[in-house]
Amino acid sequence: MAGSCSQGCLFSFFEYKTAEYVATKNKTVGVLYRLLQLLIISYIIGWVFVSRKSYQETDEAVQSSVVTKVKGVSVTNTTDSGLLLWGPEDYVIPPQSVKVLDGRCRGDDDCEEGKMVTAGNGIMSGRCLTKGGNSTGSCEVFSWCPIEKEYKHQDPLLTNAENFTIYIKNFIHYSKFNFSKSNVLQTTNKSYLKGCRYDEELHPYCPIFRLGDITRRAGHNFQDVATLGGSIGIMIEWNCDLDKGASNCNPQYSFTRLDVTDSNDAIEAGFNFRHTRYFKTAAGESYRSLFKVYGIRFNIMVHGEGAFLCDIVFFYLKKRSDSYQARKSKRS
């Protein structure tokens, strides 16, 4: 009994079964069957191929570098500085309170020598300075005098700075496809860059931007932003379908302000930095001029995705597929 069972299982293992199909002439069933086929084919073509482009291989690791150059000249005439001419070398610079918490003292022991004063302006010398018969005083510090003072915000100094231009040169590289490109338009017109300014409709691929246009496209007025400073984001999108050729791989620009929050807190908004200029008198005494500058910081962010037809087409459906396989495959 056990032997016949094992033989039956052995023979059934090598059996091959085929399905029997019956053709029925029923219009309702036939229409439903074809509709089902049409839905499946439409899904594959519409969603998989057209919308999602699943037949392509993608590279989201875009390698990018950005070089910028600002141009523009302005003239100012104030009572403090007189007549001044401002060029890019003057206004393009790469990117404290008197009431100090630990500045009060009763004796020298309260002023630790060499300690930096919290929220202060220098380093403690180790001496407590009192005035008159007061029992408390202030710790002496090594610092520049006089200390910085807060002034009421004035109108922007360079009022015509919104007409200055910034030249953004961006290079991208998709290592998976060994594809590189720049955002500078390839043209035989040598004077194109001298006269073009970025415009979504007229010059969408011109890399020279007017500062006033950048802030306007970010939804703000240039003069308002320049009063307290601000941070503007310039997004460059490189979404390239490389099947269509390099000429169809072009950047798309968008602009937004980055330092504005929902709270509209003046402490959070704005952008400023400090820089100094040093000089000495004839007697050898050192002086410095401290500048607190309100300006606009431009943050350039590059994103992108490159897509190319799947390798299966080149392996089997294209001429010279053997040479393509040799380049893609490594055998040892």
TrEMBL record:
The chain crosses the membrane at residues 31-50. It comes from Gasterosteus aculeatus. It is a multi-pass membrane protein. GO terms for biological process: calcium ion transmembrane transport; response to ATP. Glycans are attached at residue 163. GO terms for cellular component: plasma membrane; postsynapse. ATP binds at residues 69-71, 165, 272-274, 292. GO terms for molecular function: ATP binding; extracellularly ATP-gated monoatomic cation channel activity; purinergic nucleotide receptor activity. Disulfide bonds join 105-128, 111-139, 196-206, 240-249. Coiled coil: none annotated. Gene3D superfamilies: atp-gated p2x4 ion channel, atp-gated p2x4 ion channel domain. PANTHER family: P2X PURINOCEPTOR (PTHR10125), P2X PURINOCEPTOR 5 (PTHR10125:SF12). The keyword Secreted does not apply. This is Purinergic receptor P2X, ligand-gated ion channel, 8. Pfam families: P2X_receptor (PF00864). Belongs to the P2X receptor family. InterPro entries: P2X_extracellular_dom_sf, P2X_purnocptor, P2X_receptor, P2X_RECEPTOR_CS. It is found in: Cell membrane. Keywords: ATP-binding, Cell membrane, Disulfide bond, Glycoprotein, Ion channel, Ion transport, Ligand-gated ion channel, Membrane, Nucleotide-binding, Transmembrane, Transmembrane helix, Transport. It catalyses: Ca(2+)(in) = Ca(2+)(out).
